[in-house]
Amino acid sequence: MKRFVIKLGAFALVNAIIAGAVLARIDSGYAFEQFETDSVLLSMPHNEEVGVLVMGTSRARVLTRVRCNLECLERELGCKVFNIAVPFGGGIVPEKLYLGEFYGRGNRVRTILFFLDPFTMFSPQPNQDHRFVYYEPLRPSLLLAMARNEIPFRRILIYVQSKFTWRWISQTAGTVPCDFETVKGKPDPEKARMRVESLYFDGLNDGYFEHYAETLRDILEMAKQHGARVVVALPPTLLGPQPGADRLMRQLDEFKKSYELVFYDFTGVITDTALFSDYDHLNSPGVETFVKEHLKLVLN
Amino acid sequence: MLFNSTQFIVFFPLVGLLYFVLPHRLRWLLLLGASYFFYMSWEPGYVVLLAVSTAAAYAGGLLIGRTRGRGRTWWLAAGLGVNFGLLFLFKYYNFFAGELRPLLTLVGVDFSLPVSRFLLPLGISFYTFQACSYLIDVYRGKQAPERHLGLFALYVSFFPQLVAGPIERAGHLLPQLRARHRFDYDAATNGLKLMAWGFFKKIVIADRLAVVVEQVYGQPGSYGGPALAIATVCFAFQIFCDFSGYTDIAIGCARVLGFRLTNNFRRPYFAVSVADFWRRWHISLTSWFRDYVYIPLGGNRVGEGRWRINIAAVFLLSGLWHGASWMFLAWGAIHAGYIIFGKVTMPMRERLSAALGLTRAPRVHRAVRAASTFALVCFAWIFFRAQSMADAVGIVRGLVSGWGAVLDPSQLYGVVRSMGVLPRDLAIFGALIAILEVVHVCQARGATLDWLSRRPLPVRWALYSALIWTIVIFGVFRQKEFIYFTF
Hints:
Order of helices and strands of chain B: HHHHHHHHHHHHHHHHHHH
Distance between the termini of chain A: 69 Å
Number of strands of chain A: 7
Number of helices of chain B: 19
Largest sheet of chain A: 5 strands, parallel
Shape of chain A: globular
Shape of chain B: globular
Largest interface: A-B, 15 and 15 residues
Oligomer: heterodimer
């Protein structure tokens, strides 16, 4: 049995070394722009000064999801913008991990623009159970941060396993220059209601809110320690008022006692359906309008 | 707990390590606890059924052993009654209750039985048949009654083969459970190789082919002949790779622990007749029906008419074993028809083969027979997989239409895309099936595991690594259940 265990161990070690080497070689070849990938870490700079760091869900991700959106944003704000918002409904826990990685790489930022959707505070689905792990390269620092932030072991396994898939090995840069998809006609109230309902996996769970409020506190503390100004906002959508927004705003009022932050509610500032690709994501003309008429005013 | 799950990856090494560390007298207890834990990880409450089935067979065996005369038959009936009774209640009751109502209505009786809301217990068909084979063997005097309740319980619940076979005979497994097993390096390594090969078949081949099958068989009315044919062939390999993959993992697990389970598959798609197919497919079930149904009914030592009835009975029961549905009965009936028709037409087919010169080219003859057997088996699989009789009939009708698309590349591309895949995916499926069949050819020519063991270490490690990395990179890890779990 000893011989078996030794040989099995040696076999595993040889394969782990080869796998690590191959993965490192493959990952080192990945250098994407923000609009070319859903991965935050594959496009994250090192030791750079960034004017605005965008955080949030996919509603914030759209600001840099395609080339023309990013170009518009940087042109209007007059500074470099980096986006660590999590696509596909990602929440506050992944954002904390990404912010930690951002600062861990020696980057600096003047203003953090956090589009904080209330639904991310009420369920583990957009947080510990989110699929953001699929998009990120294998990094020991991220693995450690996941373990410390209660990411389930199952998710961590998926994180590791997803790096050894054909999908990861063969990924290429996304090539959509601009997004001109629009919502046809007037918004359907029933569709809007169903969309909102689908985001609140566990309803307005107070227990979860209290838990994720502490995660939000950790984010604010990190920003404070690195001297960043924090702007928290509700993003523009066609869905109307978001459940739990008042609870969130009360919590932010509490945080204002300890942290310097300002809050803006952009929920209904854009109502033209031609500026949305779906009920809660701006398209490229929508991003341009939003940046020029609203964001630029609050950030400059 | 599925074999293709993270729980099993932790469970099995732990059980294996503890097994060889513990003294022999405690090993049965470990394996019994592990087996019950394995079963309870699915639905804890249903372990009671497993325990009841075990207790009935254990008590039945002892009582048969102690009784003389007709009393033995009564105890056998009681033991079989409890086991088959539970099987009927949990698997067939709703089907028969549903079919009874229209029959009673025909004769003017308005009565319906209540619907059972029980889940189908995992593996009930397998462990019930295993327990019953023990009882019958004891009754026939082929097997001594097992007095050790723990060992007997382990025989019924041994986790590698508990939920999807192979269905083991007491005479084969009980002595192994009693024997002292030392750790055997070759057995352990061969067991792991078998498990890897099983995972490859299940996770890389079967679960990939499932994409096409689910798409087409989910809406068969939307597809023409080419798509239906491709999906049916994909299903033929999906079910083979799924089931034989499970069996390989089960046999491999058991071999690591020092046990040898029955081989359940022998390259079934190499069969040269449907009768040959059934000597190669789900061998443990086929032999169960042969020994406990077909031979007691007289087998082939009866007149032609009676023989046909025997064949029909065996295959209808085999169909019913798979599920309480007219579809499975139809599938069984089709195979019975094949066997009967095959025997009736054998002289004519032999004359035809001679006339065509096939008997002078045995390899070609064999290939023609294997291809035609595969086509017949695939046709029957339509009824096994289709969601309803209407779908199955629709698929059969649809198979003869839309073949013009094969001649037009753009139309053919559209057909492939409509199945939810790209042409390169079909090419990958073809390559995977080709790899599978190359390995089968190698197995047919000799013991592949022994051949592998004689290669130099770097060659062996390269092959093992290639297999494992293929599973990791190309495997589908959405934890799809094994098809035969539903039986």
